[in-house]
Amino acid sequence: MSGEQHRPQGPGGANKPSGPSPGGFGFGPGKGGPGGMGMPVQKAKNFKGTLNRLLGYLKPHKNALIIVFVTAILSTVFSILGPKIMGKATTKLFEGMMGLMNGVPGASIDFTYIADILLLLAGLYVISALFGYIQQYVMAGVAQKTVYHLRKDVNEKLERLPLKYYDSRTHGEILSRAVNDVDNISSTLQQSLTQFITSIVTLIGVIVMMLTISPLMTLITIITLPLSFIAIKAIAGKSQTYFKGQQAALGEMNGHVEEMYTGHAVVKAFGHERKSIAKFDEVNARLYESGWRAQFVSGIIMPIMGLIGNIGYVFVSVAGGLLVLHGRITIGDVQAFISYSRQFTQPITQTAQIANIIQSTIASAERVFELMDEDEEVPEAANPTPIVTAAGAANLRKPSSDALVPQGNVRFEHVKFGYKEDAPLITDMSINVTSGQTIAIVGPTGAGKTTLINLLMRFYELSGGRITIDGVDITQLKRGDLRSLFGMVLQDTWLFNGTIRDNIAYGRAGATEEEIVQAARAAYADHFIRTLPEGYDTVLNEEASNISQGQKQLLTIARAILADPAILILDEATSSVDTRTEVHIQRAMNALMEGRTSFVIAHRLSTIRDADLILVMNQGTVIEQGSHEELLAQGGFYADLYESQFSGRKTVMTDAI
């Protein structure tokens, strides 16, 4: 099938989910400034259900996750032991120095003991790093395998979704769920999950180590926490307002820039450059104001946290000094405790940040699972009728007696259809098309012309009646086989980034070079292709803007010719090209239509005078049918439509004269 499709929007059109935010307290580089305040967090509607479903993807990697968990604990524990052991070396050094200063007989600094401590510390840190390496290595595999299967399921789901799903949503929304949301899950599994485990273990380990040194100093450290929470919460609430304003202004500016860029020729043609610049300056000023406030407010959180932390260190140091004087703890323990107290706030802030990231990730997972829960296409027949075509014969080793050999006879039998159940569009349509006929479909916008084609190719399911091809109900054919019977040439051409040869060969898998060239010659495209510097190896850019509109159309016709379909669907492909190019395209289309059943969606009635049958549609119903002369003789809707077009052209010509 040489099916034309609309080009999807690029990632730029996708709405990327918001990043982590200070729902409580969010920190970390790149999260909105020094303080790490992020955007307002996106929350899931059903957190628990979505989390359980996401964990289902992790379940096959249970053993690997146990290894990650154990290595994360061991890596953190060995790291936490460091300050305590280092304190012993400090105490030994302090005792030796004090002994020497006081002239104690036999006093000396036990460098052997200190060296042993340092070697032990080095060993601990190496072991900690080794476990950390194992943890990251295993988790990377788990995360990528999980996301691999998730992406695979999403892609397979997208292939099973009916056309109505794509028609009812923007390409950007679908891309956002299939790409951005899955990437969000991937980064969280890879980084945030292990950070979360490490932060929890660090927090518990640090509290235990502080308690073993001094319960009193631990209490002093914990008392300072409420001050931090109050400060963070106040700043978070203030900065969230500014970040929302920043996002709104940023979205408005991006939209304005994109609009002005894509329509720059029109802007210049109507002399609106100054107006466009003035609009940009106004939005940019608002973005600057809200962005400056957001970054400033979020940026002061670390200095405030530092101030509160330093106040706590002062109290801890004073209390530690008094305890040392009373001989209740050693100087090394005070040093170790100060080190632990500095580590104490870090896992708390990290945990708060990761909690927000996880909240946003679960929201992304929920959006992905919503896509995966969408209603799929109606299942194909259990025993589908095989077909024998030039393209499909290779798939049948031995055609059975009941295989469909397509001739191109099409029947619509009392077809009923509506995009919504309570709003029927087609109530009772019956059409009989014999092989080789050219059927023109005309009517005003919204009459149902494209709907008829969508039903014929089973992009939508009927509400009643049936459609047959050569006597076989289309529901008894595999969708792939059914659509392989059709070739499409639409007004809106679709060519992908690749060579001209590849674009033509898209019409049929395994086509030879000779067949590709023959198809190009039949479409009157071979001459212009050979005039290009690289010929058939010319690479078309993303929008295929390095060739003309007419040349694009000839390539799509060549692709349809190569597909050698039994039935053609043509949407008037010559309306946007010049008269000379139109002649070439019309010749190519006539060659393509020869001997094939053709459905032509017509906009200019002058191009369908020679059609074998003209279907006049209005409000989803075929209200007239017959040849051009018969319909004119009836003096009905078609005659009025034809006369209005003819008169309109005549008036334009008269005015021009």
From TrEMBL:
Biased composition (Gly residues): 21-30
Keywords: ATP-binding, Cell membrane, Membrane, Nucleotide-binding, Transmembrane, Transmembrane helix, Transport
Compartments, as annotated in UniProt: Cell membrane
Cited InterPro entries: AAA+_ATPase, ABC1_TM_dom, ABC1_TM_sf, ABC_transporter-like_ATP-bd, ABC_transporter-like_CS, P-loop_NTPase, Type_1_exporter
Membrane-crossing residue ranges in chain numbering: 63-82, 111-134, 193-213, 219-236, 296-325
Gene3D superfamilies for the chain: ABC transporter type 1, transmembrane domain (1.20.1560.10), P-loop containing nucleotide triphosphate hydrolases (3.40.50.300)
Top-rank taxon: Bacteria
Xref: SUPFAM superfamilies: ABC transporter transmembrane region, P-loop containing nucleoside triphosphate hydrolases
GO molecular function, one term: ABC-type oligopeptide transporter activity
SMART domains in the cross-refs: AAA
A cellular-component GO term for this protein: plasma membrane
Region (Disordered): 1-30
Major subcellular site: membrane
Membrane topology term: Multi-pass membrane protein
Domain spans labelled ABC transmembrane type-1: 66-360
Domain ABC transporter per the UniProt entry, residue ranges: 410-644
Protein name (record): ATP-binding cassette subfamily B protein
